[in-house]
Sequence to fold (664 residues):
Amino acid sequence: MKITRKFIAKKANVSPTTVSDVLNRNPNARIGQKTKELVIQLAKKYNYYPNTVARSLVMKKTFNIGFIYTVPITFFLNDPFNNSIFAGIESEIEKNGYSFLFSLLKSDTDINYSVRKMVLGHIVDGLIFYRRIEKNLKNMLSENKTKFVLIDNYYPDMKTNSILPDNEAGAYQAVQYLIRKRALKIYCINGNEDHPSYKERPAGYKKAMEENGLEPIIFSVPPDIENTRVFITGLIRKGDIPEAFFTTGDHMAIGTLRALKENRIKVPEQVKLIGFDNIYLTEIESPRITTVNIPKIEMGTRAVKLLLQNINEEKEPEIVRLPTDLVIRETA
Amino acid sequence: MKITRKFIAKKANVSPTTVSDVLNRNPNARIGQKTKELVIQLAKKYNYYPNTVARSLVMKKTFNIGFIYTVPITFFLNDPFNNSIFAGIESEIEKNGYSFLFSLLKSDTDINYSVRKMVLGHIVDGLIFYRRIEKNLKNMLSENKTKFVLIDNYYPDMKTNSILPDNEAGAYQAVQYLIRKRALKIYCINGNEDHPSYKERPAGYKKAMEENGLEPIIFSVPPDIENTRVFITGLIRKGDIPEAFFTTGDHMAIGTLRALKENRIKVPEQVKLIGFDNIYLTEIESPRITTVNIPKIEMGTRAVKLLLQNINEEKEPEIVRLPTDLVIRETA
DNA sequence: CTGTTAGCGCTTTCAA
DNA sequence: TTGAAAGCGCTAACAG
Fold:
């Protein structure tokens, strides 16, 4: 025997409507105390739980939020940075009584297909994207008036909900700190990819330098450990060594540190170093790397809050900046 | 205007059923070629996609699989082992056209609540659990005839779909290898928690030892790095040093290695060491740790396959053992 | 080959 | 304070 609303209604000798009214605490319908208790007791006895699918169909809400991760699977594995954001998202979704639909997709084609399925198929009420989304996808989202939020990215040409760290302020603070520590010749090692981080962080660096009458010098490299190591090694070979490096990402900080160590340059005594992101590896390098922390878990929770407001309260899309903080360790 | 099946039907001058028949490639209904093409073209033109919720309601299938992770959030973060299994699950679910509902819960109360919601609320067709499930939950699952699969665990008193590594064979192979390398006095360091691994792996060790006429000696410790390090240090202080350690988990292997190194005992020259699990850390310890690899991604994919068979083909629950392999690195 | 009918289990007016 | 009726968008049987 299936335990439906109707079943409970029959047992309680009331109408199905009354059962819903009681269980949903519908304030419009004042129900007699006795009826109420009876229904609640019966629902408990038969372990009744409303069919979410039926409810979704009539309410046109699924109470599902989808997360679509747009990078290859190997990038997802072993990356605590993503995991923290992910954990933030998950807990906030759960907290709001929603379910979390997770999709790890490899290609843009897969993504578009999957989004189509989720949005047009009414599988989710809204979507969370991480980092990059592709142009066709952008178009599809706005055509279908899909509610979504973008984590760690935004598009100037589109009204989106976005969550980003306050990159410029974080960089500014880091560089100010370096200057206070009497490092005056500071190089900025910047990622050469197209991402807000690699625009806003060097901008913060530049601002701090100029305010102090110092000359900003920015180098662009592929933002991974190995390429940065090679690049910095080149600098060292030429004898072009500053008093400090500010790198716009931690992988570049690690690459820089390794190049420095390989060349027996003492950190922080001879050269100081500050990274950005506060990924796990910065903590286990030796010396431990000073870096700008991003509130990763909060990025996740805020993303969900923003999206839910957009869905349930028709709130206008908004770009939210989260404050960073300087984590002082051993390299500066 | 909402793009429903009815809408397309009207545009094509056919009945809604015909639209479904065309789009679902229903083999029972032979549709005229022209009608077919017209419907397909119209569906494409209006970007029609069937409402999954409505479909679910009538088919009594949601095409969702839920994953419930029963450990604190901090254990999930930074754990590549889990991530690999997770990735396997995700890709296999996606591959089968299902959606992946992910739930990270903290307490047993939360879990029971969440499972209730997912199962009774018809949010998922089946559930994947990882490691431990609690007794009330077990009862609830069997009362509701929920389809589920258990990863890395099984219960002798319950018919479950389970995926586990072949722990005993893996341990046996590792110890045989040690013996072939002329280590005859081999200690087994075993985790003191209640988990199949800590029964089956020592059993494999014991079997290999006894087959070679060697005396099995098993110590139980809390299976983490620090406790193991302390325990092994104690052994070393007493001068109780074997020719090799086989630990039933990699964290214990790392703890053992560290104790050995701290006491200037050369690995593998003086003492050999083999762990179990092949977690990421074993690769970055120095020397790199020889260990028994578990096919993590495959654990995930097989779990999904098993569950889907159970759901769609009413296949009987089954316990599947996945073969391990010895990854020879520097400690043995 | 195509259309009609009857639900799936719920929420939401609106009437009693 | 309660119940009846309509309908969400789809599938599945069966009739034409």
